[in-house]
Write a structure and sequence with these properties.
By secondary structure, the protein is mainly alpha-helical. It has helices at about 65-80, 105-115, 130-140, 150-165, 165-170, 175-185, 210-220. It has one domain: Lysozyme. InterPro entries: Lysozyme-like_dom_sf.
Length: about 230
């Protein structure tokens, strides 16, 4: 999932340092890593991120069909997070966070990012990257002690979907293929029509499903759109 999403020019230097220069909160040193590396996939793109807490419809910018949104989020998570799901951490991270992502606060995640420069930091079901997280945390004014729960991650991902044109896609004014392109520019695990990630080979990114699977899955969720 998030975040899990969900918009969005992806900025990630090979050093992993881009977008990680500004601190959000006062911080202390992270505690030692104690959990095993999740089998996560690659990071999503610079896009949108945190708002409030998921499944409070009044807080959504636009009402959506929750069943369809859940199915789309599951599809994205399949491309991004692997079996670790909400506790996924990009597998290239040599130093892991001080606990499972769902147990951490935003302050703890931010402190881990600052303490471990030069490595990937994509985190959670939707593989949010630091620049995205920090942009939206500031914009939304989320407290540092907000926990990175599954509900929060899903809500962030819905924001990314909205930024990708979800409302127009649902209304029929945005063709399905264009919506899919927008999603692929946010989440590197999703493919373009040529089968490659929009970020293929950049910082190790690659698509983790075929275009046919992506297209067929979206048609099954929204048979009446695009």
């Amino acid at each position: 999932m998030a975040g899990r999403l969900l918009a969005m020019v992806f900025i990630w230097l090979a050093s992993g340092a881009a977008g990680e220069l500004q601190s959000l909160f006062p911080r202390s040193a992270p505690s030692p890593v104690s959990h095993a590396a999740p089998g996560s996939l690659f990071a999503g793109a610079e896009a949108g991120l945190f708002r409030a807490v998921l499944r409070q419809p009044a807080a959504l910018t636009t009402p959506h069909d929750s069943n369809r949104i859940d199915r789309l989020l599951t599809l994205i998570a399949r491309a991004e997070a692997g079996p670790a799901n909400y506790d996924a951490v990009q597998h290239g991270a040599r130093i892991l966070p001080p606990g499972p992502p769902t147990a951490l606060t935003l302050a703890e995640i931010d402190a881990w990012i600052d303490a471990t420069p030069g490595q990937p930091h994509a985190i959670g079901r939707y593989q949010f990257i630091p620049a995205t997280l920090r942009r939206l945390v500031r914009a939304e004014g989320l407290p540092a002690q907000t926990r990175f729960t599954p509900d929060v991650q899903d809500r962030l991902a819905i924001v990314l979907l909205e930024e990708a044109g979800l409302k127009d896609f649902e209304s029929g004014t945005l063709p399905r293929a264009r919506f899919m392109h927008s999603l692929a520019r946010i989440w590197a695990g999703l493919p373009l029509p040529n089968g490659r990630s929009y970020y293929h080979g950049y910082a190790g990114n690659k698509a983790t499903m075929t275009w046919a699977t992506f297209d067929g899955s979206l048609r099954a969720i929204w048979p009446d759109a695009g």
